[in-house]
Design a protein that fits this description.
The protein is of the alpha/beta class and 292 residues long. Helices cover 37% and strands 17% of the residues. The protein has eleven helices and eight strands.
């Protein structure tokens, strides 16, 4: 078992981010408003099916036209967080304007939410969303060989998992390294604490053994790719531990960037993602360019 405090009250104090950040709604509402504006302004394909389940829909925002771009645009896939139980792709369209203007095709998938489905079910839905993206990227001007994933919180967990995915086992037509790079923001890599954390354990419905089996910190380092791990410096000590943990597990060569950004918490850390003047945005562009 991982080394962490088993006291239920302590676990809640470390992982219940909405309780830790009383004004979290201010940040989230701002991003929702920016996302609605982005969908009004950008040419996009909304609620495209990638599977048959109700939540298996995604939005695609093609890259802005670029002269001489014969190969196709790099593809940025944004996986939202919400502890597997909340949030929606519609809340994350805000990342599209700046990245499409920079020449990327942006894909934002949804997935069904717990407790109606399990954590494992959700992970497989996101795998299907990435498989769909690889198969269909060219329809939207994207290059399927240049896919980068960005995820926040449990989306960051899924971003790391996607780097470890055995794509050939999922479907024979898929390349072994479908996801080239990933940025995990405030990611979770050791799920064992969440199996015991009171506010979420009945939603995720995992025992400690099951949680360990699907924790990327206990996986072998992926054979290819690069992961950047970033958190807000004002996040809980457990989220900061998790951020450092994946670099320790997979090594500095695979995780060359492992940072905590000053003045940011679990929610405000998202504010800089779509802002070209901020380091978070530049890290994403760096990963997109490194897929070439």
């Amino acid at each position: 078992m991982s080394s962490f405090n088993l006291d239920p009250q302590w676990l809640d104090s470390m992982y219940n981010n909405r309780a830790l950040v009383p004004d979290h709604a201010v940040c989230l509402n701002r991003l929702v408003a920016l996302s609605a504006e982005a969908r009004q302004q950008l040419p996009g394909h909304i609620d495209v099916r990638y599977g048959d389940a109700p939540g298996e829909r995604l939005d695609v925002f093609p890259a802005a036209p670029t002269a001489g771009n014969n190969k196709g645009a790099p593809v940025l896939v944004m996986v939202h967080g919400g502890y597997w139980r909340a949030m929606d792709k519609a809340d994350h369209s805000y990342i599209a304007p700046s990245f499409t203007q920079s020449g990327a095709c942006v894909v934002v998938p949804n997935y069904d939410l717990a407790p109606a489905v399990t954590v494992q079910d959700i992970m497989m839905q996101v795998v299907r969303a990435l498989a769909w993206t690889w198969r269909n990227a060219r329809r939207f001007g994207g290059d399927p060989e240049r896919i980068t994933v960005v995820g926040h919180s449990v989306g960051g967990y899924m971003a790391a998992m996607l780097l470890s995915c055995l794509w050939k086992s999922h479907a024979a037509d898929l390349p072994a390294s479908l996801v080239k790079n990933a940025l995990s923001i405030s990611g979770l890599y050791d799920l064992e604490p969440l199996a015991l954390t009171p506010f979420i354990k009945d939603i995720v419905r995992m025992n400690v053994g099951e949680a360990r089996k699907i924790s990327p910190a206990f996986f072998p380092r992926p054979k290819t790719g690069t992961l950047y791990a970033v958190a807000g410096a004002d996040e809980s000590p457990e989220f900061l531990r998790q951020n450092l943990l994946i670099q320790k597990a997979w090594g500095e060569k695979f995780v060359p960037v492992c940072e905590s950004h000053l003045g940011l918490n679990h929610f405000t850390v998202l504010n800089s993602l779509g802002d070209p003047s901020q380091r978070m945005h530049r890290l994403v562009l760096e990963l997109l360019h490194n897929t070439a």
